[in-house]
Design goal:
InterPro entries: DUF1007 (IPR010412). The chain has 222 residues and is α+β, with helices and mostly antiparallel strands. It has helices at residues 3-12, 15-18, 58-71, 76-92, 190-198; strands at 31-41, 46-56, 99-103, 106-107, 115-121, 124-138, 143-148, 155-159, 161-162, 165-166, 171-173, 179-184, 216-221. The protein has one domain (22-56, 97-221). The protein contains five helices and 13 strands. The strands form three sheets. Strands 1, 2, 5, 6, 8 and 11 form a six-stranded mixed sheet that branches. A five-stranded antiparallel sheet has the order 4-3-7-13-12, with no helix packed on it. Strand 1 (31-41) and strand 2 (46-56) form a beta hairpin.
């Protein structure tokens, strides 16, 4: 049922949804995702996971919803969204769920994602999931930094904004710790920006291009 859908998404540049990673990396974004991040903290003040929401841009959401509505058949749109969520989750696994997290200089490892859903909200497709840490990480006295990015920069991933500044719920910390949060904007080398802008959808980008254009979330807890 989803074979035709995957082909359509590749042609329509909705690489996030189909994740048919063929080895070609495309440059400069052809769509965007609004990101919300909540740090999940246990009763001992340890970070246990990253609860993320990825909301597709309106144009590609429209394409996706129309295609899923047709592909859903008798089972309906909700069943099609559920199956799409499984495909997204499975295909994100080899790429670390597009997420890098550091506690100080120590890169953190993740466990498998088992808690996830895809839904329609305000006419846009939203992928929501909990990314658990392999080992809980104490937060008190720590500074954590993370980036969420498509390595190919085919899809631009930015924190949810209101009036051109990060929304209040773009980065939250659960629990009772006193934490400060910041979202740093990227400052890529101008030559890299020029090189990326000149690449077309059929060109191959350098590995990890998206990292240079990714926002950085920072959380410091006392």
């Amino acid at each position: 049922m989803f074979n035709h859908l995957r082909r359509h998404f590749r042609l329509a540049a909705v690489a996030l949804l189909c994740f048919a990673m063929s080895g070609l990396a495309h440059a400069h974004p052809h769509g965007w995702i609004d990101l919300r991040m909540r740090l999940v903290v246990d009763d001992e003040g340890r970070l246990t996971g990253l609860h993320q929401s990825w909301r597709m841009d309106p144009f590609y959401s429209l394409v996706v919803l129309e295609e899923l509505g047709q592909a859903g058949g008798d089972d309906g749109l909700e069943a099609a969204l559920d199956q799409l969520g499984s495909e997204i989750r499975d295909n994100l696994v080899p790429y670390g769920y597009y997420t890098e997290l550091y506690a100080g200089d120590q890169k953190q490892a993740f466990d498998a994602v088992n808690d996830y859903t895809v839904l329609e909200r305000g006419g846009r497709v939203e992928f929501i999931f909990l990314l658990p840490l392999a080992e809980p990480q104490p937060l008190a006295g720590q500074t954590l930094r993370y980036q969420v990015f498509d390595p190919t920069y085919y899809i631009e991933m930015v924190h949810e904004e209101e009036e051109r500044v990060p929304a209040e719920d773009a980065l939250l910390v659960g629990g009772e710790l006193a934490c400060e949060t910041l979202i740093h904007q990227p400052s890529p080398d101008p030559e890299l920006v020029m090189r990326a802008a000149m690449l077309d959808v059929t060109d191959e980008a350098e590995p990890g291009l998206g990292r240079h254009f990714a926002e950085t979330g920072e959380v410091t807890c006392r």
